[in-house]
Amino acid sequence: MFVIVYLLSCLTVVSAGSHSLMVFATYIDGQTPFPEFSIVVMLDDLQIAYYDSTSWKVVYHTHSDSKYYDEEQSDASIVFQYIYNHLKHWTLNLKDQLNHTGVHVTQRLVGCELLNDKPGLFKSWDAFDQQNMGEFTFDMEKNKIQNTLKWRITLDQAAQLHTKFMHQNVYHPICIKTLRRYLNIEKNNVMRKVKPRVRLMRKRLPDSYRLQISCLATGFHPRHINLTLFRDGQPVDDDQITEGEILSNGDGTYQMRKSLVISEEDREEHKYNCTMKHLNLDNKLDITFDADESDQGSFSLSVVFSVLVFMCVTVLIITALIIWRKRRTADRGSETSQSKYSPTPSSASR
């Protein structure tokens, strides 16, 4: 229940030449086996640090330069304590307003981005008990704040100026500085480009006349990809598609699969194809399902059956040859024995 599902959905697709540093913060009010407060720091899709209320210290997952350690701990302490105080304060307020008891989870996704090496927006999304509570945006270039958060108390002019000052001179500069630093440290991992491999699969569903066609893209990096199934040139509706999540392969690359269940009539009447767009592909990759091909399941069964028949025939032929040779050898031995011990005409007359 504490997985940041909603906040992850807020992330937009990162285009070529853009990078982000995002902080995933979770505050838990109530008795649980988890820390009261925890943070995961992500550089694009790479986790670089972890922080929680057990030790109140940042644990780095990358090879951070030791000469920046004290500075990083100081910056993290300023930002993370600010997030902790805010989430705790708003959780208590909302719990009182809604008259709720039990365990409550407040989450925040906050961070900054570089767009072609230029500082972009500083953004923050909040959620309370899996409900969207709005968005906060600070535009450094325009020195402008846009606030759609439902739980923010209306600030007077002095408080608004203080908020703008802190984001302009503290939070946004710290975020951009950290983003640039770790982008340089982890550039080989973050900026590596691996082209996707694509496979088309078709199988017959058990106890059914329906078929499942799937398009699988795997082994690609970065994680952002556009994979689409088409029917007669039109995108298939999302409610007909199964799967579709980006998953990790465990080696730093990713995979995505999209599947569609169709009938035999659909396969004959419609044309299905899969298109894929990725940063490492010059053009989109378009692959068509051949309606005349046998489905994967039937093909596999026919191959297995043919192999079994071939093996049986081969065994029978070999067995017949062995028996024939044994009989032939036995017949030759019998003829030799008879010719050796049978009396000749001259010896019989004597």
Automatic annotation (TrEMBL):
<dbReference type="Pfam" id="PF07654">
    <property type="entry name" value="C1-set"/>
</dbReference>
<dbReference type="InterPro" id="IPR011161">
    <property type="entry name" value="MHC_I-like_Ag-recog"/>
</dbReference>
<dbReference type="Pfam" id="PF00129">
    <property type="entry name" value="MHC_I"/>
</dbReference>
<keyword id="KW-1133">Transmembrane helix</keyword>
<dbReference type="InterPro" id="IPR003597">
    <property type="entry name" value="Ig_C1-set"/>
</dbReference>
<protein>
    <submittedName>
        <fullName>Major histocompatibility complex class I-related gene protein-like</fullName>
    </submittedName>
</protein>
<keyword id="KW-0325">Glycoprotein</keyword>
<dbReference type="InterPro" id="IPR050208">
    <property type="entry name" value="MHC_class-I_related"/>
</dbReference>
<dbReference type="InterPro" id="IPR007110">
    <property type="entry name" value="Ig-like_dom"/>
</dbReference>
<feature type="signal peptide">
    <location>
        <begin position="1"/>
        <end position="16"/>
    </location>
</feature>
<keyword id="KW-0812">Transmembrane</keyword>
<keyword id="KW-0472">Membrane</keyword>
<dbReference type="GO" id="GO:0009897">
    <property type="term" value="C:external side of plasma membrane"/>
</dbReference>
<feature type="transmembrane region" description="Helical">
    <location>
        <begin position="299"/>
        <end position="324"/>
    </location>
</feature>
<feature type="domain" description="Ig-like">
    <location>
        <begin position="196"/>
        <end position="288"/>
    </location>
</feature>
<dbReference type="GO" id="GO:0005615">
    <property type="term" value="C:extracellular space"/>
</dbReference>
<keyword id="KW-0732">Signal</keyword>
<dbReference type="GO" id="GO:0006955">
    <property type="term" value="P:immune response"/>
</dbReference>
